[in-house]
Amino acid sequence: MAPENQTTETALTYAEVGDDVMRAMGPPGLRYSVAMFMLAAAVATFFLVWNHQIQTGMGVAGISHPVGWGVYIGNFVFWVGIAHSGTLISAILHLVRARWRDSVARSAEAMTVFAVLTAGLFPLIHLGRFWVFYFIIPYPSERQLWPNFTSPLVWDVCAVGTYLTVSTIFFYVGMIPDLAAARDRYEAAFGPDHDRSRFYRRLALGWSGAGSQWRHYGRAYLFFAALATPLVVSVHSVVSWDFAMGILPGWHSTIFAPYFVAGAIHSGLAMVLTLMIPMRYLLRLERVITLDHFEAVAKTILVTTLIVGYAYVVEPFIAWYSGDRFEQQFAYWRATGSMAWAYWALFPLNVFFPLVFLWRRARRNLPALFAISILINIGMWLERYFIVVGSTSHDFLPHNWGTYAPTWVELTITCAAFAFFLFWFLMFAKVLPTVAISEVREAAGRAAQAGAAGAERVPVLRREGAGTAPPRGLLGIFRQPTELVKTLRALRAAGHARIETFSPIKLPEADRVLGRSPGPVRIWTLCGAVSGFVGGFALAIGTALMNGSIVGAKHPVSIIPYCVVAFEGTVLLGALANLTGLVVHARLGSPRLPGYYDRRFSRDRFGVFVACPPDQADAAQGLMRTSGAEEIHVVW
I want to staple 115 with a disulfide (CB 3.0 to 4.6 A). Which of 82, 182, 433, 621 is the partner? Predict the structure, then answer.
């Protein structure tokens, strides 16, 4: 991949955006098949070695006294961190209306889901007897085993489980309009009975691009982003509290929450570059994913670089300023002891090399971007390993100090986990749209409008199956959204009330002309969030009273720790209720489409259906013709 220093952004039409993305979903080539075969072999090795550990026992791993947490927990923290960039790009940047996110958000969201799936494997691997994981689930049982909701490890289960659920929903909901475009493309090319046609038809849930659907969809997507944004901060804060709530030197620090969140976004953005640079080249997406998008990611990495570098400097300062002798001896050992090699490697890998992005030429040089992203990934994995192993191997008492070295079992599982992650990502790249087509089309709207031709001849057509009954209405097809909006104004001024629009993108102006309200999805979201908040506290308090454990004369109910459970419940049930409201009010779930639906509505055409009696049909037809309708169909 040669350096590209010129601006590569080109003006694309609605159709060209969809064509470029859909072309990447074509039949796999030899290189792709070989890569998938090799990754599948590595994943099989992953499960074979894990099975060996299960059959033999945890003795094959290097963890022992005093290091009870090793590579497995470091991997868990690393992969949860990788997952954070997807939500940052999709949710936070959506709320602040950052336009550069459109082309990279979909791949980042997929990366989030697959990274959380990978992270979720490591607590089970570390558990040894992974089949008893359900002990952590709060359900009534004869053994009266209830989880302790004051434990940060239980918070982890709540936070990561909520993050996986919300991220998966967010990822899927964002794809619905694009899945409809894939459905229409394959039905037009291969017919409705083709396997991929049926596959995308089921996943699209009957999406037609109707204005009523876009209205509810836009509000629901906004609420998903609002719910997911605090989740970005909370999840890795909770993961950091696995360590910060302990009393070991190097762990017990209030800086851990912001430090872990910044580090998570730092590593996640680096992984976005690592995956998308080769994906852009291999899938020929240069016109959709431009150097401007990579430069924006690199600028964001600069911000997280400075935060991580600040944390590296502040940690030894806190140890010195605190006057805590144990913290001071640990800070000295960390810089000069047996793990000093890992400590000093963090500065160049995570801070100095990324500072190269201060120069614009480096931010727009693909080989430099790719190389530095790899170095950041290595550095952030090394940081997680160092944090987990360092404090446990060098705690308060000298006679309790020890060393740790990962065994071949741990190293094999660690390396194969990357293959597990890449296997799912490569499958996603061929099966689902890797770029948010509808959002990129919105950015391309001005170019499409500028390149549009004038109004063409207007044929009046009758749909097949027309009978002697009076027509139900007219369907006008337009090339540009401005023509559609002009038609809506004319029809509304003429007194027509029953109007529906169809489009490949969201059209807020059409909603304003038709006087559509935001819709009731927000009520579903609010009720779900309130239920989750109350239910989270009720679950934690009820479990504590059921256990009835009184330690040190303290009451079993601890409200402050239960806020974590209540917050995760708020986000989880709020997201599920938001999804339910979208499905109900947008009338999703059925693959049936209106009889007058045109497949071009998911590609590059806009439609207006107006229900009118026969005596008003000619007038409505004239309004559509005047507004620039490309075609007018009589709907029976």
Answer: 82
